[in-house]
Structure prediction request, 727 residues.
Amino acid sequence: MNIRSQVSMVFHLDKCIGCHTCSIACKNIWTDRKGAEYMWWNNVETKPGTGYPTKWEDQEQYHGGWEKNGDQPINIKSTGKARVVPNIFHNPYMPSMDDYYEPWTYDYQNLFNAKEGSDQPVAKPISMITGEDIAVEAGPNWDDDLGGSEIYAANDPNLDGLSEQQRLQLSSVERLVFFYLPRICNHCLNPCCVASCPSGALYKRGEDGIVLIDQKKCRAWRSCVAACPYKKTYFNWFTGKSEKCILCFPRLETGQAPACFHSCVGRIRYLGVLLYDADRLEEVANLPDEELVEGHRSLILNPHDPEIVRKAQSAGIPDGVIESAQQSPVYKFVMDWKIALPPHIEYRTLPMLFYVPPMSPVMADFEQGLASHQMEGLFHGIDQSRVPMKYFANLFGGGHEGVVRYAMGKQLAVRWHRRAETVGDVDRATADKFLREADCTIEEAEAIYKLTSLCTFEERFVIPPMYREEAIEMIREPHEQRAEAGFGFVGGPRRGL
Amino acid sequence: MSQHFLDQFLFIALPYVCLFTFFLMTIYRYRVQSFSYSSLSSQFLENKHHFWAVVPFHYGILVITAGHLLAFLIPRQLLAWNSVPWRLYVLEISALAFGILTLIGLVAVIIRRFTNSKVRMVTSPTDWMLFFMLLVQTASGVSLALFYPWGSSWFATNMSPYLWSIIMLAPDVSYVAAMPLLVKLHVVLAFLTIGFFPFTRLVHVLVIPNPYLWRKTQVVRWYSSRSRKA
Prediction:
């Protein structure tokens, strides 16, 4: 057993209101500079929808992630060791800027400097790359809240395997439904970006599992951009380096939550340490599709088990980290309650960001235009959910409904339980029946409710003591460097000599 | 007399200046400006024509450079190979073919850089200078193959000894002094390109990632004192 610790995350989608505050917090700190204008290390997508970059989940197009052919060990779907040499000059699966969007600003100066005339001057959109006029056709979140859903939502790759009727149900007026999917780098256990980098510039930090790109080792081979199935490594066109979410490690190292976590209005984000067994990574990454979610869970070790604690200590994991793992909210969601699931586990990168799948809108079932007031029909049964279970299964279950059904059922049971407790129009017996069916006790339901609804800052973010990558503040004022090259980079990202 | 001095300058002084610059600045830049030690890829900005420009150019120039290197390193074996006419023809025709491939690729690269406004934004004056030098160099090389045939043989008999005389620090211009003007241009430009090399995107040639094929799949870095294997 090779015990390691990993800073892991849970996003509780039932609470996400799609406000994009996380994206803005991240943008302001990290990607508000030349070459990174188009990057959104954190972005929020409307689902169903095609996301950013457009249709990133369609691996027939992007060739991201690992692929498994029969009994063969898994391979990088884009350009792994076998295919990197003939494809070194031109990466066949590299997305282009058109797959994201061409960043633009507005010619505000024209409002002041335009010659006097009979019409009002306007601020025309101009490209942030060339400075030329640009006809804006699309941008990130063009499909926010189902805007243009005939083009966007209808092409969501997760709709694969849904019946025509289910698709219609998702988009028909008065029945349509959407939810938000905030995305950052998953800091995977089996990262495809790291495995694909010819220069060895990408690495996983041993102590906390954060995946980073060494900017001085990156030689612009672009393999990581093609290899990451979540499209969370980005190519900086100006510096010729790949960049990605760094999980705000300079903040984590000083005990602060990452900016997107800290700023989250809906308080949907949780962060904590998980202990896992690195010796079994290869075995789990090679499991058949339907065993992946369970296999992934089986990697995660119980930090309350004295035997595990002893082994973790002998593996050199500091006591502070082990304590942190014992209080980890992520462990509760993922392992104790099993209501948080990894996104697209079938890409086999073993992501360490987990999602609590969202419930459909809380409302009574409509029958002949009237809200049903029957006790049993107060909430939708999860199978009558507006979002077909198959859709969630494609997103969070590797195509398999069982684990998703379990997670949804338990959330539903918690709602019944709380309804019985607070409103009282549901009798205890009904609530207990739902709890029993969902494999949930009253104590557990209370705990889920508390961590979901009443969680404090300290309960959401249990940040372990961490090593410092670079103590840059000693020699430089970080704010002066902000828009230049990113944190910790002394001297601008100049090219040439 | 002046011709003599010109030859001395172009084929003795200039090569040494260029080679000295090459070695000094390549190392200096790697140590001081390692951040920019790569070629700034523009595939992300323009992905439709990228393949048709970059791939022919690279495969062409790789084979051509390898050919020059072989003639420089093993001139005797090359001459032996060329002693049978059909083998000479095969070599000459393939060299010409790859030369033309390089030229086509390079022209496509330049057109792509010039016509796409996004790619133009990431093309520096140094890049344009380099492209111009490479274009003249490749064009002169292809012309040599066309108008002064059997280059694989006369390279081995004349150019190789000259280059070795430079390497052995006993420069002997007599091998090149009698060469046609086009050959002289090609040689001078070759040395200029070598001298210019460390200041350009060409440095990416030196950081080809060969360890990738042998390294472990995943990379883990430990910061604590107890360093563990990935």
